[in-house]
Amino acid sequence: MPKFYYIARNRAGMKETGIEEALTQEDAIIKIQAKGLTVVNVIPEGSEAFGDSTVDASIRVRLKPKHIRVTTEDITLFCRQLATLIGAGVTILMSLEIISKQVASKKLYEVCLDLKKSMEAGLSFHEALAAHPKVFTDLWINLVESGEASGNLAVVLSRLATYLEKEAEFRNKIISALVYPFILTLVGFGALLFLSLKIIPSFAEIFKSFDITLPFLTQVLVNISDFLRKNIFILFLAAAGIYFLLHQYIQTKNGRLNFEKFQLKLWLFGEFFLAFNVEKFSSEMATLLESGVPILYSLEITGRSVNNLIMGDIIRKIKDDVREGKPMRDSLERSGFFEPMVIQMVSIGEEIGELPQMFKRINTFYQSYCDTFLARFVSMFEPIVLIFLGGVIGVMVVGMFLPIFELSKISG
What we know:
Blueprint lengths: L2 E7 L5 E7 L3 H10 L3 E7 L27 H16 L4 H9 L5 H15 L4 H6 L7 H13 L2 H58 L5 H36 L1 H13 L4 H21 L4 H11 L3 H15 L4 H8 L4 H13 L2 H57 L1
Antiparallel strand pairs: 1-2, 1-3
Helix pairs in contact: 2-3, 2-7, 3-4, 6-7, 7-8, 7-10, 7-15, 8-9, 8-15, 9-10, 10-11, 10-15, 11-12, 12-13, 13-14, 14-15
């Protein structure tokens, strides 16, 4: 098996070297990282530098980028690695140099190089981050600025990484919970289309050869099948057109606002969408306040990043009231958006000076609520869809066999 010489740093920031056996260079890096080390350089056996423990950083091997854009996973891993390295005493410039060799995104690799270049030119870290608003949000920039001002950048980045990891985990739970119902629905309606477009027409041709009057149910099914066969492409185009127009409408401010109001009024799902937005609000507020960001700045940042017009407007009103010296409790209660439990917990947090901790508890509650809701939805959705599809397919089968029963009676 091929051997690879490596240079790495442990959690204390100390340099470690060694030889790892692996099939490929990427496998070697994975094995080294599994030991809790941060890879600096990996050199394959047979190269001139193999076995030389004084390998210079200029010949470090970089993983080939796997994709171009910066994904949520890329930015989360970047934050965690940065927090770990800075916490171990590695300088920001060296940390960016090390991380740039391991990122899977071509865009993020270029960003790392630009951050390093900007800081070498005299910019602070948060100022360098601000030059890339499409990659680093206001949350990032303000937390880093707070960490730089307090001298606790590693701690702040660790909190940010934890926040990003929790949000990614929460988002993945939602996606995973919705994938199965989506696939089940897609397969079910695919089966119905197949029966309508292929099976029923075949039976209809057979029945025509017998020159019999079809039962009412069978005739209805044949008519539906004929309609779908003749207009299937028009129906698909109409559905695509309606989807496109709705999507364009939702992109407008009024359309987005009306869509959000519709979501909150939905039976069964309205409470979920409300809980989801409160979870996002409480999560960001807890992270910002705990990192030392003033409450007015925290509200401003959260209001821009919640990605919900209704919630954003409510947060802006809360910020205006807080600026005037009013307690947050009154603003929350006046909005009509928050449950009494949230209002009470925020009120207690303001009184005892533990607002970040209260927001963390609110966030934990609403994450648990959303998880439970999705689990129940999936467990209810499966039997409902199966019963519905089974009933429809059963009706179609009965409708196709009714003429056969009639023929058997005649022949009998």
